[in-house]
Amino acid sequence: MSDENKSAKVEIDIDKSDDFEINIDKIDNDNDIDPHNDKNDIDPHNGKDITKMEISAKEEHLVTYSKDDNSIVYWDIEKKRAEFRVNVKLGRDTDLCIRISDNKKLAIDNGSHLRIYDMENNQEIKLENLDCHHPTFDYRYFTFNLNDEFILYERDNNIVLFYSTQTKNKKWKCKRMYKIPKDFELISVSKDDKLYLFSNDHSIYAWDLVTEKNLKILSITEELPKDLGKRFKKHIRFYNDENFICIYVVGKIPIFSTKMETHIGTLYNSKAKTDETHVYYYAWRLPSLRPLLNNIDVMLEYVRSKSPEDLKDKDKIQITTKYALGIQKGRIWKMDLEESLAGMDLTIENLKNPSEFLKYWDEYFGNNSELIRKTFKVHGVKLFGIYKPFLDNINELFEEVIDGKHEEERKKESSLGIIRWEIIIERRILKLKAFITIHGKVTTLTRDENLNDRSMTARLLGIKLFSQVNIIILTTKGLFIYFIDTKNESESNVSIILFYYYYMEINDENVEECKNFFLKPTLPLPNYNSFKFCEGFVSDIQSNDKNVIYYEKLLTFGIKEHKFDLINKIYENSLKKFKYEDETRDYLTIITSTMPLLKEYYPEFISKYSSDTSMIIDSYLFNVKDNDDSLHLYSFRHLHIVNLTRSIWWYKYKVFMNKSSWNKLYLRLYNFFQILIIFPLFPIYFITFYILSKYKFIDNIIDNVYDVFSLYFYIIERFSKRTKTKTITFMNPYIGFVNYPPYDNYYDWFIELFRPQPSPFVESISREIYKTWDGETLINFKWNHYGKYYYSIIWIGFMFLLGCFTAAATIPQQYIDDDVRKKLLIASIILGFIHLSFEVRHFIYSPIKWLTNFWNIFESNFSFDEFNTNNNDPNNPWNIAPAYHQVFENGTVDPNPFIIQQPDENTNMFVDFGTSIFAMYKFLTGDSSALSNWAYKDDPSLAILIVLFSFLIVVYLMNLFIGLLNNEIEKDNDRVSYLMQKAEILAEIELFYLLPHQRRWKTWFPEVIYYYADDNKTRQKIKEMRKKSEWSTSPFTKLRETLLKQLKIEN
């Protein structure tokens, strides 16, 4: 090797006590990744076994670590050569954690020390060279992403830092920083910047730093293996792409679709639970799954079968999204997985019991995925695969009817396999007969479908058999799909089930239009008349779990048709689904979406729902932790990562002050100069720091540094310090209750501005909701996020309108010039038109409600004429001041005043707003002198108003004292009334003051809301519910037993 190509060696003593030393050598010759070549010039690990392999984010490089050889080799996979050798000398028997980037940066942690190396420049990047580092920081996770950024997780402050690895003077600058909530702990960061977090309630969440969206992807509901203990989180691994998240946890790999927001399957490391063909199919379809298949024996055996030699140790095989890499005698063998899997016969026909997701992969996760998600929602998305096979057959049936292949007949017969069908329509009754062979014996099944629509005669247009047990029937009354339930092949349990019915009037003129209606990617959900004119369909939905997607429409039908038993059945089934199914929350939307109708027809179900779903959670455990006592019934979105990138410079300053605190003299000097800076700015100090803190330019990230600049946080913490108490986290059961349709965000902006589509919250302002904690936390969330701000702005606008107009209309001319009065009137007109625009929109939205509103009618009685200030005004102070008339010698009186006493400010105290308030106060105390300048006989209206006002005030005061005496009795009702009034205000703000796109913001209108509850108040609430016999009636028995156990309450 020439001098030019010889690598410079660097020896770094990491910790003398541990005797941890590292040398870096650059390898000059090519080392092909070929296990057949036994004459390579260089043996990177000197023939020793390779202990561990790590892949870079772009999968262009890998490192191999040999514990026996104390060496790490950095490989270029595409070029097939080893580039660097790192000699590692461990002072103790420990396992290395290694991460590499694609720009040749290496990070190593031996369990007590983290060291970073730039192999290209042959230098160490010391932690002190990270501009946001402090020696006391406890780093528990590190990695590199696709942008070659170095990511560090600092546990004590619970922050994640992203460093640029572009070395400048051996310095790495922090580019981004994020704060993780206290209830969560970071598990890992994906190469495309997704944070995976583990919550206190044993749930796993994914937070996308790019879109700022979070998903709950898994709840750990089973007991964790004892041997894992606290190391459980270290055994969780993630890989993802744009559409899928794959997780390895406790011997299985759940696969989550981010488009569908649901689990699509689980692979187990057991052939008894997972067929090997499923593993291969998923691996073929999901490149992001492949790296996790290192833990699945089926895939490892497949890789070994393709390798030239037997690879016994599964730890020496590394699978990436592109390749399978194996270790043999210090060499690396590579297999192209994409090519290998593509050569397998991975068709659906070869899969054993494939799920609906596997059968219709392209439809589920292709261009129509959004439509499927919108139509079927999470709780029914799996059923799309059941519907899909019928679409092509329905189209063929329509074509045959249009072509005249099905002549008009009263009776049709068809057979397929072991089943023969006879279909006939008589007197609006669809009669079906199926002859099926069971155990060699022919059994006849019959079903009569009463079609209650009398608008037209029912005729049979055509039938089409699909598979052995399904039949599609087209009539002039719509489309029917039946199947024979053969799960239990005893004669008594086999029956004909109506799986689907869509009512529509079909004739020769519109048959082509009807055909196009069914050409959509998904079958349209049944309409209202489907349930109204076919009672058998309603019965089959209730008894068949596959029809759960019809529940929402069926519940709407049941409420409007006053079918109490049907309503109760769907209500109970929906709660049971929440209780037992995986994607549980969305079943509650079946009930919450129909709250407006329940409020109108069956309010007792709202009360029942509020009671049954009180104090529930969507996880296996309730999260109990210490919190401020002021946070009782504080509502929030469950996960929100705070972006502190704006605070990086403040964070650097805090790190610097933390280091300086070790030197008392330096710290005092810094504080002295800070005081000199702050002193002249002290009047605006707190306002400035509040604004900077609100917009995250500063933050109390490191809260153990109390320098003068951080005085703001110290004072806020000191004066707002509250008693700590234990709180428990609950889920608000009103799922999707605050969301506005359409949920796919496709809407007409202009129409939404004048005729907004309401949310269930707007249409369901009910006392039964707001008498519970769930209703109160719903209001708290809305009020704290936007309600109080909009309410303040609206009132300020009204005050400006009132102030401008009152000043222009009532201030005498000698106190205000015409130019100022004109400007005030212009401002009043502008503000008045703004107010009028909201009133017009309110009227367009609901004319009847606007007209029946007392305050709207009351306001309409005012006009500008009432504020006329001309000299003929009888209320003009000059017209009511004492006047003296001349008496002539003949005894007549001159009608024109001879002398007028000059009026003062007390002549008409109602001219000025301030003195008018004082005049009313005097009148309340019994002094009516302010009204003595008017003649009551000439002003009967004034006399009537005085009497009414006095009477009403007396009555009001009497009732006020009575109300105070009964305050404790009506305390709850007062609270409920207050919350309902708040709900009315919020509903008006949402409909008329928020823009259409703002009503779709997930931060203001999340699907799920959580809240804290004081554990002592929770115990009291449980006692109250037990006294009212509301606790034991809930269907969530197991969940409530868990809550009682955590609160240490005897069951």
TrEMBL record:
Stretch list, region Disordered: 26-46
Residue intervals passing through the bilayer: 465-484, 669-692, 789-812, 824-844, 942-965
Gene3D superfamilies per the UniProt record, alphabetical: YVTN repeat-like/Quinoprotein amine dehydrogenase
Domain of life, per lineage: Eukaryota
InterPro entries reported for this sequence: WD40/YVTN_repeat-like_dom_sf
Keywords: Membrane, Transmembrane, Transmembrane helix
Protein name, per record: Ion transport domain-containing protein
